[in-house]
Amino acid sequence: MPQWVIDYVLLHELAHLLVAGHNAAFWQLLEAYPDTARAKAFLEGVSFATSRGLTPAGDEMGDDDVDDDADSESPDWN
Ligand SMILES: [Zn+2]
Prior knowledge:
The protein has a domain at 3-47. It contains three helices and no strands. The chain has helices at residues 3-15, 24-30, 36-51.
């Protein structure tokens, strides 16, 4: 996963420490991150692809390793 997507996810989760839901106040917190819209679109694409059984190159189907280290052997999304 690209670093700018990981950064967005971290900021998203940190923003939830201040605002529980996805209301206007929540999204206002994320406006400062310039790649918010791009990262959301990227994650929607990943969700679309994985819901159809598609996986990134190097990722095997059925891989249930949920605690992947972002610094190690990330699949090539480019
Ligand atoms: Zn959320």
